[in-house]
Amino acid sequence: MPTAPSDPAAALPGRPPVVDLATWQAARDELLVREKAHTREGDAIAAARRRLPMVEFDPAVEVTGPDGPVPFLDLFQGRDELVVYKHMWWDGAPHQGQCEGCTTTAWVLKDAVYLNARGVSFAILTTGRWDEVAPYVEFIAPRSVQGFRRLLLDFHGTSASPQNAL
Question: Over the stretch 119-128, which tens digit does the pLDDT of each residue have?
Fold first, then answer.
């Protein structure tokens, strides 16, 4: 079992001090109050987000994918709901330079079978131009979902008017 250094000044920089259990418990209890307040605030923000008003979506808007432009409504594939993952895109960056978190999500995505079985379709949208997005799709597709080319779409323009899709 490790022991505390005999000289407190010998402790490594940035390490918290070694204290008795009562001191630790008091500090932990104080932090817990802040953590719970943080959780409650996060829950309130999430509830407010869910209550945001909706915007009617123009059904004539098209997204572009490997098969060319398609109406946005086609992404529903006849299902009642559509889950969209917004893949952040940096224009001009190679596929290795795109958003790491979004790339990881796309990389580990295996399929949408679970969602599809429950009446939900899934698409990945990005604001990148298709000519830039296509090489990324070729890079990521063999490593992730079958039919990935149908999921990642170039979604150009405003958030209410997509243009391209994978």
Answer: 998 888 888 8
- Pair 25, 19: CB distance under 8 Å: no
SS3 138: helix
Strands (E), the chain: 62-65, 68-71, 81-87, 120-126, 152-154
Q: What is the pLDDT of residues 66-117, one digit of tens each?
A: 778 888 888 888 999 988 888 898 999 988 889 999 888 888 877 788 888 9
Nearest to 102 by CA among 66, 140, 130: 140
- Report the C-alpha gap between 96 and 139 in whole angstroms: 9
Can you tell me which residue has the tokens 């505390």?
Answer: 4
Q: Could you tell me which residues come within 8 angstroms of residue 54 by beta carbon, excluding any fewer than 6 positions away?
A: none
16-43 tens-digit pLDDT: 999 999 999 999 999 999 999 999 999 9
What's the N-to-C CA distance of the chain in angstroms?
55
What is the rounded CA–CA span in Å between residue 101 and residue 99? 6
Write the secondary structure of 72-109 as one string of H (helix), E (strand) and C (coil).
Answer: HHHHHCCCCEEEEEEECCCCCCCHHHCCHHHHHHHHHC
For residue 34, what are its two tokens? 């802040």
